[in-house]
Design brief:
Shape: rod-shaped
Order of helices and strands: HEEEEEEEEE
Number of domains: 1
CATH topology: Immunoglobulin-like
Distance between the termini: 78 Å
Structural class: alpha+beta
Amino acid sequence: MKNCRNIIILVLLIVILLMSVAYSAFTTQLTVNGTAEIISEWNVKITGIRASFISEGCDAGDPQFTNSTVTFDAKLVKPGDHITYLITIENTGTFNATLSKATFTESENGSTAIIYKTEGPPDTLNAGSMTAFLVNVTFDENTTEMPESTEKSFTGVIEYVQSTD
């Protein structure tokens, strides 16, 4: 009986060994190779600035721009004169953009009688779109004394960030 039990255990061990070898022989390793490429681009920038209206006798200077800044010098003659600047921004990237900063600063050495007003840029700029907004520079009509200087320089910084939508 003891001998029979040893034979059964030996046979079971051989069967387990054969099953392991057979499993290994029929099992193949699966290898998956691949490449992922993100094709997206961030490209939101100012693409232009120009004077779209100039009161007679006034000078809009030579407006300049970079990707995120505009600078312009307005030289006005008398109260009520104004110059309107048109600023264009383009989003040629693949992400929608949200406005994070839009500030305009005035030079300290210019006339306080020259003021500006803007209603832009827009808060969102979708991928592949372009927008424009106006900056109006005006010689204050309520000025009672003519200032020594009738000009002022302005710098605008406009920055967008990737939209979370």
